[in-house]
Amino acid sequence: MIRQFFLTHSPINATFTKNSSDFVVSEIPLYPFSGEGEHLVLHVRKKDMTTWDMLQYLSEVTGCKVRDFGYAGLKDKEGMTTQYVSLHKSFEPKLANFSHEKIKILDTTYHNNKIRTGHLKGNRFFVRLKKVSHIDAKKLQDGLKKIAKEGFPNFFGYQRFGIDGDNYLKGKAILEGSRKERNPKMKEFFINAYQSYLFNNWLSKRIEISRLIEEFNVSDGVRSTNLPKEMVENLKKQPQFFKMMHGDVLHHYPAGKAFVCENVDEELPRFLERGISIAGWLLGGKNIRAEHEAGVIEQEMFKECEPFLDKLNGSRRFAWSFAEEVEGVYKEEEAWFEMHFSLPKGSYATVIIEELTKQFKDL
Predict the structure, then answer these.
(1) Are residues 78 and 166 in the same domain?
(2) Residues with catalytic annotation?
(3) In the chain, N or C: fewer CB atoms in 10 Å?
């Protein structure tokens, strides 16, 4: 499946490099820390190193085992990132004279509990694109405004698929039984890549359908999508780009329960108000499935994985997500376009960049 885009402008020839000057990530905690308790919370800034590398160094300095550190999520190696990590406060004296050229402890506090994986609201991003023309800057500004207003397709980023883009094939081979993987973490990683690949394909298909519905008249929409005329007519009445279908799995946004859409007219206002979103399938047997018209499309897009369903539990991921506090500034003298935006956990800044520039690493 060819990656589909939400924005309609022509490709942009900008330069993006994931370095500590042009890519900055700041973690947004799920909740404020209490300021008391037995766990020391470090607000740490690192550059050009992985979270694991940072934790390994902190472990060597403090004596705290890597597995005993708490963290909400893993941050990219490239760029400058800030995040919160926790360890028992008994190790605090060992950090009194802490110094490292790539790690800086910005602040410390305390909390009653260890930070757990996933305990973050999201991340705040700064991205600088270089060699941006005045015309392309206008496209970027308009694109950002549209994303801020309507949201964006929540694809998995290229990081999930490896340098050669073939991690999903390894995952599929493991599920088929034609590949053995002794390392349980790598086995899970490859299988997750296969789940991500199928999700991205399904999302591209839904964007393609939404585009055809949006741009064609009813008769041409019926012919190009193979959907019933009444369904196409109803979809065309929806004001937003990404169309909601009868039987879609919907999910309270940004957190809550998943449920099947039985009445589009009733649920659509909540989608438009960002109270719910459409959720795509990460394959697995013990998981809610789409039904009715949406279920037909889902079944077709995921038919190759039916033999593997009993091997995985599965889950749901937001297909359409929303950026907050979106800002963009063009610095004409330097030919730089700088942007800030906040994304919920699990969403990729690189997907926003790909959407804006139409440059991406295809599979």
Answers:
(1) no
(2) 76
(3) N
